[in-house]
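Might I ask for a little of your time on a matter of protein folding? Here, with my thanks, is the record as I have it:
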Amino acid sequence: MTVYPYRSACPKSVWRNLISAAGGEIVFAGYTNYFLWLEHPNLAKVLKRKAQQGCKIRFLLGDPDSDVTRRRETVENVPLTVSTRIRITLSEIEHLRDVPGVEARYGDEHIAMSVFRFDSEMLVTPHLAKLVGHDSPMLHLRRHQADGLFDRFAYHAAELWSSGRDVWADESKEPSENVTSPAG
């Protein structure tokens, strides 16, 4: 549908409309998903309401303590580290922990690509070398045919999800109590 030279060039209204319109499935398969909480006030409340209306919501995050995350922090070399951004998301999704239909898993294999699915539309960010997500390009796709681009990226996200580890079942990975929400 649309191609943006940078993820940050995609208007917030596109994200808001996709989230609002989705009724069956929302997948946030970004390594940190950190920017969502900054750009969409009350996102947890919106997602809770959507889940209560029957929408399945999944978060696939990187493990903040993995070697993959540590290597990425070295590459990015920015003050707001990858592990800190993941922990902020973990703190935010903790509000959704007991909401039926909301799931969260760790997986480190998607470090180079983010896939955000909203029913039959999708935003895909292939991360370019040494750049953070907001500086990488983004594709806005809509499903038009079987085995097209949409289905290929949906398959990718589903495979990563299937090999992920449940965030809330892993007792050694409790969200940090010291991380504050980006909103305050």
